[in-house]
Amino acid sequence: MGESVARGLSANPSGSPEQELCCVLHWFGSWSPCQRRVFVGELVKRAVPGKVCCLLEGLSGLALTDRPPTLFQCQLRLWARWFDSWTEDQQNQLVSRLEESAPQYAAQFYRELASTAGRQ
Description:
mainly alpha
C-alpha cells in the first residue's frame, strides 16, 4: 500500500472514500485470480442489492467454522463495509478503476451483472 495511504488510514481508521478505494485496488492487485473472481461476484451482489437471487446465493456462502478468517476474508468484509457507505458515484469509480487496471475482471462484472436481469 502506498505510504501516504497507510499514514492517512492510521490517522483516521475509517479513512476517506478515496483512501479506501486505493486500499481496495491495492488489495485487488495482490489477490490471486480466484480471489479476484470471488471479489467480482461480491461486487455484483452489492451492485444489485434488491435481487433476492443474489441474497440467497450470498447466504449460501455463510458457514460456521472454528477457523479464524483469512486475510482475504477480512479484506472483503472491510471492503463491503466501505462500499456500502460510499455514494453511488464513489461505487461507480471503483468499477471505472477496475476497467482501467483489470479489464478482464470488469468484463466479468458486467457479464454477471447482466445475468441478474430478469431474475427475481
